[in-house]
Sequence to fold (346 residues):
Amino acid sequence: MCDAPKPADLLAWYDAYARDLPWRTSPADRAVGVIPDPYAVWLSEIMLQQTTVAAVRDYFTRFMTLWPSVEALAAAPDDRVMGEWAGLGYYARARNLLKCARTVADRGRFPDTRAGLEDLPGIGPYTSAAIAAIAYDLPETVVDGNVERVMARVFQIEIPLPDAKPDLKRAAATLTPDVRPGDYAQAVMDLGATICTPKSPNCGICPWKTNCKARSVGVQATLPVRKPKTAKPTRYGIAYLARREDGLWLAERRPDTGLLGGMLGWPGAEWGEAATDAPPIAADWRDPGVEVRHTFTHFHLRLSLRVASVPKGATTPIGSFQKIHRTDLPTVMRKAFDAATSVLPD
Fold:
């Protein structure tokens, strides 16, 4: 029989081994009264949704350099923010980022309650709990993938995910302390990220090793259980890349709603089970025999290319001819741009 894990044991480990993250106020700084910046906490949490710490570091640092306050971000042009976000994925987050920043700037400050935070654009139950705990030291239960894994093992919860989520959250709530809840929330995430990892957990140095039910019976590496993944379908499409003699490219802004919403992209029909040939303008379109492949959350994409050089006076009924910087493009459109520039003549 294992005793219940003690938050104090985890906090002592965190004080010694907390990850050094650019958006984090260290436990040592907190101990001498340094208060986390709600703006930095919010920005990092939005960026970290469905994205790794390694992928977010540089984006966060660049955003904080360009827009060091929520007011600065609120005043930024949409295109500039969307361009800086390009490559981070899940572009609805970037649109909501701007909406939220402008709402907060209008109100004068971030709300300091979970309910108030959840009333803002783009902030759901997880993010509101994370900001409330980390920025305001409120005893909210924060459950991400790392925390789910820790709870599944410590409490030996063998219900497959995602069905286990309510049980995992209830288990996590039993441990959320009133003392240093912000540090504790980050400590559990660090534990999952650095010790209680998905494969080969390093149980020998875990501060909760004597409290882990799964470890006591030797099944820690098998938890959490997940339902078998369904195979992702493959969709097909054609991207049309036309460059005018003056160096401008034919591009269009995608609708705000839907995949890659609000981002610059190349004209083309909807992606589907078969590619649809739908040139946006009359031109000498060539097939360079290049295919761009990209994987989204729910499907694989195979995108054929058509390229054309058009005269300086060419016009278009859709989109516009404009100067394109590859950094303004989402990843899949950037791949197409790189492929097209390698086959079009200088």
The first strand starts at residue 234 and ends at 244. The chain has a mean pLDDT of 94. The CA atoms of residues 240 and 279 lie 7 Å apart. The radius of gyration is 24 Å.
